[in-house]
What we know:
Elements: H1 15-22, E1 35-36, H2 42-52, E2 56-60, E3 64-69, H3 70-76, H4 88-91, E4 93-94, E5 99-100, H5 105-115, E6 119-123, E7 129-133, H6 134-146
Parallel strand pairs: 1-2, 5-6
Antiparallel strand pairs: 2-3, 3-4, 6-7
Amino acid sequence: MEPLLDLDVPRPKEGFQAHIMLDSVKDIAIFQPASVASTDTAAKAIETMRERRAGCVLVMDAGLTGILSEVDLLFRMPLEADPNSIKVSQLMTPNPETIEEDATMACALNLMSVGGYRHLPVIAEDHSIGIISIKDLLRYLSQRLEE
């Protein structure tokens, strides 16, 4: 007659496993991400991505409106199109999935894996918005593995 609820909850032991299950996203989130407005042109978004060496830009209007990634540019922009005449709103992924800054690395990895995302916007307590990439997560975990 014992409760079985907690029996299958994974518990980290130590080391690398603990980092994945206990470290929070805010440890690696970038809270000044590259951003553009939905009314900006694709050319401006591309230039912003180049300048910041970023794989995506957040689309910010009166808050987070969308996300525009390299993949969006490759597959949604017509080959013969002029990037100066196409608006970000035509190419972006609207209403992207987000994660709270206090969420664990395991939650972020799960969201990215299930959703097929390479970039994930991070929402902070003070309502600022950051971003993490799968590359950021793997780099962080790789450094913890070396410890």
